[in-house]
């Protein structure tokens, strides 16, 4: 379990998404996915992207990661164009995708190993494992871990690069509800401790409100920004706070899901 820590001055990057549109080429036709999306994420913010399944949230995350280039528009990190992947921008997916034949420590070492830095910076692996509370499991194998522990390994693998922008693509989506709540708390504690900027894709309204400074609600595909909502509550947050309930109703209304609430 990651212990809470006092927040520090942000070391995260600033992100600008400037009038970005994107489409996929399918069977000789075009499928529009993003429609003139613009937003800014300040250094040290955690911002959620929320919308219906298939609306384009993960596509936007891939563009920020530099895995694809937008059809139109531009994406900037600290004022510089994103023109490809970079270790300072790390994406964490829903599935931890650990190599079963490698130990926890060896899985976390992968990024440094691929960049030829492991020999000189091996201490960063131990530091990342301690950050996520898995120092004692360095020599364990993935089959010996719970789902939550495996996601902590995935998180350590991202943190070992000291990212200034952490991209989270529904990283808790496959966890049971109790583990998910615990991991939400741990992610917030790590974010406060390290000061990185984070962009979280989620379908979970409560998760977005509990973890993030802002919630950007997107329209159905092709995604456009429907509303950018600031969560005006300090951390740590209590899930029973009436203000969170009020914001949840507002967001569910924007998503057309408020009939039962």
Characterization of this structure:
- The structure is a single chain.
- The protein is α/β, with parallel strands linked by helices.
- The chain has a domain at 12-88 and 199-261: Rossmann fold (3-Layer(aba) Sandwich), CATH 3.40.50.300.
- Helices cover 32% and strands 25% of the residues.
- The protein has helices at residues 57-65, 104-108, 110-114, 118-121, 123-131, 147-159, 177-194, 205-211, 242-254; strands spanning 15-26, 29-41, 46-50, 72-77, 80-81, 89-92, 165-169, 197-202, 214-218, 225-230.
- Strands 6-7-8-3-9-10 form a six-stranded mixed beta sheet, with helices on both faces.
- β9 and β10 (225-230) form a beta hairpin.
- α5 (123-131) crosses α6 and α8 (205-211) packs across α9.
- The protein starts with 14 loop residues before the first strand and ends in a 7-residue tail after the last helix.
Structural class call reads alpha/beta
CATH topology of one domain: Rossmann fold
The CATH class designation of one domain is Alpha Beta
Number of distinct beta strands: 10
Short characterization:
With 261 residues, the protein is of the alpha/beta class. It has nine helices and ten strands.
